[in-house]
Amino acid sequence: MPEILTVSQVTLYIKRLLENDGVLQQVWVGGEISNFTLHSSGHMYFTLKDETSRLRAVMFWRENQSLKFRPYDGLEVIVSGRIGVYPKSGEYQLYVDFMEVAGMGSLYLAFEQLKERLAQEGLFAPERKKPIPRLPRKIGVITSSTGAAVRDIIKILHRRHARVNILVIPAQVQGETAPASLVAALQAAGRLPDLDLVIIGRGGGSAEELWAFNDEGVARAIAACPHPVISAVGHETDFTIADLVADLRAPTPSGAAELSVPEVDELRNRIKLCTDNLNALFSRLCARKRAQIERLAFHPVLRHPDRVILARRQQVDEGKEELVDRMLAALEERRKELRRKMEQLAMVNPLAVLNRGYSLCFRETDGRLVREAAEVARGDFLRITFRRGRLRTVVEEVEEEVTT
Amino acid sequence: MSEKITEKTFEEALARLEFIIAELEKGELNLDESLKLFEEGIALARHCNAKLDEAQGKVELLLGIEDGVAKTTTFQPEEESV
């Protein structure tokens, strides 16, 4: 009777066999990832495959924490680990403790993946970029306090604007602790309200040396910084995540310094030009207005006011003459009228005849007007009245028939 | 002139100054308006220069922040090693 083993005994036997094999306990495997799942526990389950075979694999949370990139189906990887047996399912699998991307490299993949994720979150969006102030008073410079970058930045800032204040916020810019150090510096800068602008950067280096500037935490700290941030990492061609999330990217630390302050001499010239323009415009306006005033002041009316009076006086004189003439004429008219009336009156005045040389003759006895010679007799006394005076006379002879 | 000149940023003041000059160059304003703009322009130019003189050119190194106050020391970058 052969010995009958339980399932557990067989499984345990296989487990021991496999797990005591020197080759299988430290193995490097290359393959393509498929059926990748990230469990809510943080563990990663997937299958490695090639053209003919498949190998189940697991990478626990503790190990996959150090992964910079996120594995996905179809990705060619090289992993290391040990083969173990999972008794519950009776399956052997590869327990992965290290994973590297085959071909392009893990760092590159991590970079691309982080870039895509942050882009999707909108961290690089142009509309969230803060404007760079044209004339900052105080600039925070986050970089190594001993590198060439800080020296270059200070030199150029002060060459362009000697009076700008600079606060160096020291940080490690490479190595394991650099991301945390940069994040701390960014947070410190954020707590200083008198900063107008922050420059974060370092001089050029290898991709590994610049890697801290591709760190997600650094990218988020730049995005969260309340001040405008200019990134200045490396030399010209190196683009980092920090560059993408910063409000402005400068190719070098020197470039950042040039972008953050204007040439103050140039600005002063511009202001002087403005002031000169203003003064010239002012003089021109004054001259124009003065000319206007002079033109008015030399107007004949203002220059010879007496002429106006003379002219008016002449008018008055003329008026007066006319008035007198008219009055005289009117008087003359009245006078003529009067004379005419008087003549008419004279015509009817009995005494008027006296003027024409006639005289009146009255009888002295009764004072009657003598019209005919027969009314008197010889020896009668007569009174004869002339235009002026009268006389008393005596009739010597009466001639009745005489006509005159 | 809704806001005070001294509250303007350098950019705003310079932009306004250049606008004023353009306006005056057109010569379409009456004397009172022109004089008002001249006065403002001179004040703006003065303000711009004051802004340029505001900072002192200090270089400091941040040592830490205590109770929201920055602890600093004067900073002198190391000379270039040849």
Number of helices of chain B: 2
Distance between the terminal alpha carbons of chain B, to the nearest Å?
Answer: 56 Å
| Rg over alpha carbons of chain A | 68 Å
Extended strand count of chain A: 13
Number of strands of chain B: 2
What amount of the residues of chain A lies in strands? 15-25%
Mean pLDDT of chain B: 84
Annotate the secondary structure layout.
The complex is a heterodimer of chains A (404) and B (82).
Chain A: H1 7-19, H2 22-25, E1 27-38, E2 44-49, E3 54-59, H3 61-64, E4 76-86, E5 91-101, H4 106-121, E6 138-143, H5 148-160, E7 165-170, H6 178-190, E8 197-202, H7 216-224, E9 229-233, H8 241-245, E10 248-250, H9 253-260, H10 264-297, H11 300-303, H12 305-348, H13 352-355, E11 360-363, E12 381-385, E13 390-394
Parallel strand pairs in A: 3-5, 6-7, 6-8, 8-9, 9-10
Antiparallel strand pairs in A: 1-2, 1-4, 2-3, 4-5, 11-12, 12-13
Helix pairs in contact in A: 5-9, 6-7
Chain B: H1 10-26, H2 31-53, E1 59-66, E2 69-74
Helix pairs in contact in B: 1-2
Briefly characterize the structure.
Chain A contains 13 helices and 13 strands.
